[in-house]
Every structure is written in structure tokens, then in C-alpha cells.
Amino acid sequence: QVQLVESGGGLVRPGGSLRLSCAASGIIFSRYAMAWYRQGPGKQRELVAVITSGGSTKYVDSVKGRFTISRDNAKNTVYLQMNSLKPEDTAVYYCYGEYLRVGVRVGDYWGQGTQVTVSS
Question: From CA 72, how far away is CA 76, in angstroms rounded?
Fold first, then answer.
């Protein structure tokens, strides 16, 4: 059974930091590209950051320079370090894993989400 379990969300003041973790089980983690998505109140889900199986990263413009995605294949875990948080970062953050074989998606999974609230 595949599971992606997020943790680390919470309430933080503007300018503060949080680190989200997503622990994966039931998959060969090192083969998966991993990503963080978020969905704010009344908004569509958006891609925040992605890290490939090879370690390349990409970010949505609104978080560049503030957020860092990383992975530890030995721990089957992907992280999202969030610094200089803003109220507009408030959202449910979801972990996502995708396995591509010769460019074809052969498996993808979502975590259950963790709430991040940025407020004074």
C-alpha cells in the first residue's frame, strides 16, 4: 500500500519559517519525481516546487528565493523549507509523487495534505 504522509504544517507569523516533510512508503522512492502543491482558500491547486529523481528543482515564481525543496532518498522523504512566509502562502500543502518510464506516467500518488496558516 502506497502512502505519502505530510507533516510540519501549522500556524506561523509573517516572516516566519516552516519545514514540511513528506514520508513515502510502498514505492521505490528514488525513482519518483516529487512535488509540493498547495491550494489556498477559494483558489485552484497550484504546483509550488518539484524535484526530479536526479535532484533537479523548479519553483513557481511566487516562492523563488524563499522556499527550498529537497529529498533524502535514504529516508524516503521529501522536504519543503519555507522561509519569509507571507499571508498569501496560507494553503493546504500536498505532497505528490510521480514515476515516469520513458516519458509515460506509470504511477502517481497524493498525500492527504497539511495546513499552513500565515497570520499575525
Answer: 6
> Whose grid coordinates read 489556498?
40
pLDDT at 35: 98
Q: Are 36 and 95 in contact, with CB atoms under 8 Å apart?
A: yes
Predicted confidence at residue 9, as pLDDT, reads: 96
Region 71-96: what's the mean pLDDT? Answer: 98
Cα torsion angle, 75, 25, 83, 33, sign = positive
Q: Interior CA angle at 83 toward 99 and 117, to 5°?
A: 85
Residue that has been written with the C-alpha cell 495534505 in this structure: 113
CA distances from 41 to 48, 50, 68 (A): 16, 22, 23
